[in-house]
Amino acid sequence: MRFSGWSAAALGVASFSALAVAGTALAQNVPAQFVVSGKTAEDIQDFTTINLATAERIAEVCERLATAEGVQVSIYIIDNDGNHVYMHRMDGQGYLNIVTAEMKARTALMGREVSKNRMNRVTRDPNAELHQIQLGLFPNAGGLPIIVNKQIIGAIGVGGSAARPAQGWSDEICAHKALTEVIGPQAPLVEDLPQRRPATPGNAPVPRFDLPMGTVPKSSLPADYVVSGRAAANIYTGNQISGAAAKKIARTCRAWAAAHNGAASIYIIDTAGTFVHQERGDGQIYNNIRTAMLKAQTALKTRQPTSIRAAQLRNDPGGQPRSIVWYNFYAVSGGLPIVVDGEMIGAIGIGGGAGGGDEACAIEGLKATFGDRVALPVYPAAAAGGGRG
C-alpha cells in the first residue's frame, strides 16, 4: 500500500511558477488547523507543513494510548521538509528506542509510504536490507506519513515498545490510532508478514543483566523532576530529567515567547545527550531548529550556560578556532545546563529569538518548573539577553 501524492512525472516537467500555483491549490484543501497558516506561513513560504498544535495533539494521543497499555514509547513528528516539529520520550526509554522512532518517521517521509512496507520487502528478500540502508531508510514498522486531503504535511515515527499484534498493540498501531483520532480516517494498516529467522542460528548464551529485585536507581530530587520507579530501573539511572518536567519547561517557554510576539525552537536533552522533548514553534526555520539543538548539546558538554562561552570568545576571539573545530561548541546565548539542588539532570537549548531572548525564555521555563532550586546565570551588570539563533 502506498499513500498517493504529487506524481514524480508531473513534478519533473513543471515549471517553478506552475509548482507554486499547484502548491497553493493543494494547500487550500488542507484545513488551517492542521498546517502553519496566515502571516506565519507567508514568512516561511510554506502552507503545507504540519503545525505545532497538530503535532502535539497526535503525540499526546499516542502517549495516552501507550500509558493505557502500560508501556513507554518515543514519538517523533517531522514536517514535510524533514525538520523536527515535536518529539517526546516517555520515561524509561533508552537510546535505541529514541533514535529508531526518528528513523521510522524519516523513512515514511522519504518513501511516502508506511515504513512497514520497507520491513516487509526485507522479510521477503533479506538481501534488500543493505540497499535500504544505503538509501538512508530504516525498514521497520512504526513510521507513517501524515496526509490530509492527499497532501503530505509530515510524518510520525513511534518506537520503544514490543509489538503485540494479537492484542491490537504495536508502535505502528499507536501512530495509526493517534492519526485517526486527530486527523480522521486513515488507510488500513499493512499486513504483518512472519518475521524471518536465521538459517543457521547460533547457540551463544545470552546473559541477563537485571538490578536486584525491588532495586531502583535513587535521586535526591522529587519524582516529578527525574525518571523514577520502574522507568528508572529500565535505564539504570535516576538522575535523568523526567518527561513531565521537560514538557512543563517547554510549554512555559512557548507561552513566554508567544507573549513577547515571538516563537521558539526548544530542545531538552538528558545527561546522556539523548532527546527528551523537542518542539518547533510555527514559523521557525532550519537554522532556528538546528541552533537550539547545538546550544543544548554545548551546555551539556561544558556544564555551563552557552552565554558564558559566548562572552569569553567576545573578550578573546582567538579562542574561536579550537572552540568550533576541536570542541564543536556553539557559543551563542540560549543554552543552559539543567541543575537542580546541585544535581545535573539535563540541558536545554532555545533558538529562534523567542520574542524576548532565547536565554530569557529558557530561564522562565526552568523557574516555573523548579523554582529557586534551579541554578541560573547571574549577570553582574546587564540583564540576560539572547539573539535570534
Describe the protein.
The chain has 389 residues and is of the alpha+beta class. It has 2 domains: 21-182, Beta-Lactamase, CATH 3.30.450; 243-373, 2-Layer Sandwich (Beta-Lactamase). Helix content is 41%, strand content 14%. It has an 8-stranded antiparallel beta sheet. The two termini are 41 Å apart. Mean pLDDT is 90; it is low at 1-27.
The CATH architecture of the largest domain is 2-Layer Sandwich
Structural class based on helices, strands and sheet pairing: alpha+beta
Q: Supply the CATH superfamily name of the largest domain.
A: Haem-degrading domain
What percentage of residues falls in helices of 4 or more residues?
40-55%
Radius of gyration: 22 Å
Q: What letter string, H or E per element, gives the SSE order?
A: HHHHEEHHHEEHHHEEHHHEEH
Summed over residues and divided by their number, the pLDDT gives a mean of 90
Annotation field: number of helices: 14
Please state the overall shape, judged from the principal axes of the Cα atoms: globular
- What is the number of domains? 2
In CATH's first tier, which class of the largest domain applies?
Alpha Beta
Unreliable stretches (pLDDT < 50, length at least 5) are: 1-27
Spatial strand order of the main sheet: 3-4-1-2-6-5-8-7
Beta-strand fraction estimate: 5-15%
Sheet with most strands: 8 strands, antiparallel
State the distance separating the first and last CA atoms.
41 Å
Total number of β-strand segments? 8
Kindly identify the CATH topology of the largest domain.
Beta-Lactamase
